[in-house]
Every structure is written in C-alpha cells, then in structure tokens.
Amino acid sequence: MSDTVGTDDEVESVSAETADAARKLAADAERVVVKAGTNTLTDDESNLDVEKVAKLVDDVNDLLERDREVLLVSSGAVGAGKGRVDYPNDTVEESQALSTVGQSQLMAEYSDSFDRYDRTVAQILLTENDLEDTERFTNFTNTVETLLEWDVVPIINENDAVATEEIRIGDNDMLSSSVAIGVGADLLVTLTDVGGVYTANPKEDDAAERIEVVGNNYAEVQQLVDRSSSATFGGIQTKVHGAREVSEHEIPAIIAKSTEPDVLEQIVTGKPVGTLFVPTNGETDE
Ligand code: GLU
Fold it and tell me: What is the largest CA-CA distance in the chain?
C-alpha cells in the first residue's frame, strides 16, 4: 500500500496509519447501517430491478453470515412506484402517493429475496419527528434492538406519505446518518452508483480520481465536491455530509459502489473500497 492516500494536489493526503486504523475499525464493525440509493435498486425505466435487489441482499447476507448486525436504509419507494403507475405531473403529492405504491413493491421484493437465505425482514418508516421526539426515538431504538435480537433485518425508509416539508428528514443520506448515530452503529456504508468521492464528477470528467480517505482534508474535499457537483437531491454532497456527520460521532463511514462485487464483504475484510471517512472529533487536525 502506498504511504499516503490522496489523489490530487488539491487534496491533502491522510496518513497511511490513520487510514489503516480507520479501515480496521470498519472491518471490525459489529453493527452496520447500509444505505442503498434508488439507483442501486431500480432500472433506467424506474422499475424495481430484481437482480439489483438480489445483489444487495447477497451483500447484506455476507455480513449477516459473519455475525454482523445489519440495518438497511433503503430508498427506491418513489422510483419503484413510478414503474407501476402513470403519474402525469410529477408533483410532490404524486411522489408521496408513488412512494406508497413502491414501498410495498420494494418490501415484497426484499422479503422474497431474503427468503432465499431463510431470513425475515421488517419495515420501519420514519419522519424527522420520530427522530427528534425522545419517546418516539426510544420506541424506535427499542424496536430495532428487539428485531436484531430476533435476527430480523430492519429495513428503514422515510415515511414519504406523511412527510411534509416541516417533518421531512430530506433524503435517506441524512436519515441513514441519523439512524447510524442513534442506534450506536460501528459503521455506515452508503452504496451508490459512483464508487465514492472523486476529484471531479466522474460521469463527466475522465480525469476524475477517487479520493480514498477523508479525514483532516475534509474542508478541501468538501470544496471539491461543492465545485464538481450540483446540489441535486440525494447527490454526492448529501452523501459526503452524512458520512462526515457520522464520522464526527467517532463512527467510520464508507461511500462505495453498489455494483462492486462482494462490496460489503470486501469492507469487513479490510479491503480499500470506495471513499473512507475516518472517525474524527470534528476538529480539522487529527
Ligand atoms: N424515501 C425516498 C424513496 O424511497 C428516497 C429518498 C432518497 O433517495 O434519499 O423513494
């Protein structure tokens, strides 16, 4: 392994020692929150992609086989709904209604797919209120603990049907980060269609290079990301933000490519996958 990890003059490298220690923490994680984005689960026509779901379930099962606890934060409800209903206007109200169509499709698919491993899943739908209200939050964590004790896989999404502007968490990048912190996870893995954080938008720029580790170089990485991507809903910016928030709670976070073979197994066997956010106390000097 090279002595430093960093890819671009503009981004300072994180020391190999810091990176290795964080990678080991990630590999040893007992409780893992895995966030899967819509692209990870649906095809170009917004239909639920059975093979993509199966690939994700295979990856999650790899962790379960290794006696890790997994909470899955899954998007894809609105996307899956779009594949089933003609929606003329693309309004907020329609997205909310689409989510209710898609959420049941999504859970049916997860249920079937996890059945291949004789595993049971549970659906939890949350809004911001549920995370901020102490009693609701305690109920949520108690439910999660019970499900994990039963070896049931909790699958969490925002309750889009009732989430108005005031009570929206916003996107599942932030939801997964709040869940990871709230349930005391040891690792957050955000699976996406790009392989991590890049020095430029990899979909538009062939010279874009992956940043392997984010730590004391966070401010520079943040600037790069702000420059290279538009502030689209659920884009790389919110993933970086969510990962940073988690890492400031001493939890390592990794943004990785969902199509990478055995992506979760690679992470828990200490392989350098995607972009790793090292746990930090929030200060810029480590
Ligand atoms: N809750 C939305 C859905 O299931 C996704 C939100 C997001 O992707 O961040 O479609």
Answer: 55
